[in-house]
Amino acid sequence: MSTASASYPIGTPGTPWGNAERAEWLSRQTRHRSYESDVLSVIERLRSRFDVQEYGRLEYGPGVYPLMAIRSRDWRADRPVVLITGGVHGYETSGVQGALQFVEQQALDYAGRVNLLVAPCVSPWAYERIHRWNANAIDPNRSFRDDGQAGESAALMQLVASIAEPILLHIDLHETTDTDETEFRPALAARDGKPFEPGEIPDGFYLVDDTESPQPEFQQALIEAVEKITHIAPADDNGEILGSPAAARGVIQYPLAQLGLCTSMTNARYRTTTEVYPDSDRVTPELCNAAQVAAVCAAIDYALSEHLTSPHGAVPRA
């Protein structure tokens, strides 16, 4: 759990960034890992069991990044769709690796019951640079709206819009890290010309539900599954997690559509954002990935059980 007070070395305090500041920020970004080795190679191995689709392509300078989705091979119109997204913030590693691990180890357990659509690394440029933003200093997870400026988000929205079948569930895999407080929130304040107000990183796993359409029983089913793997973030002395009132143990609520968050893309009945805490001395990368997989499995199990017992199995369309 981290708290920090930070200034940012780019720009003038109180003045939003212009082109010069964005260019300076971009010049400081360094490639630390390989999207091709870590993600594309894994997806290639999955082609023997799943359909693979390139749904977009990003070009940032000399870098070209194909955007890839994994789909059930036995896709049928009479089955609901489960949408799994990871790596919307590229630095949140278990979101990417957890999505891939689910496909490799668990996805075939759901064959014949749902249509799976998995976009495991929505922001590959940011994945390689272990960053929150894309190359234009834009947060893709504030850009899932018609006027959004992130190509990563627009491509994923187009993919989801092309799905004719009803979407039952969307689970978006994230992390909350200590660097949120030491790097990314200070950078955001500097970029927007606002003062940085230090906060506190929650110690443990939590979920983000939709303020406008909450599903408390669904969220708690995931919490109960994940706490077998890792610890759940407690509310602070103000009854809050990351500055938001705890709606239940390990759950907060955001207005998804208003903020342009990834889980606002559909009208799926069941939607959630996972938040793993990888900086705890009580976890390992393997445990973080396992927590993401446990959340995905619990989400699908709950959604299917409710879907099968609801009248006519009705599901809102995307």
TrEMBL record:
GO terms for molecular function: hydrolase activity, acting on ester bonds; metallocarboxypeptidase activity; zinc ion binding. It comes from the Bacteria. InterPro entries: AstE_AspA_cat, Peptidase_M14. Pfam families: AstE_AspA_cat (PF24827). Keywords: Hydrolase, Metal-binding, Zinc. Gene3D superfamilies: Zn peptidases. Its cofactor is Zn(2+). Residues 31-318 form the Peptidase M14 domain. One of its GO terms (biological process) is proteolysis. The keyword Protein transport does not apply. Belongs to the peptidase M14 family. This is Peptidase. It comes from Marinobacter vulgaris.
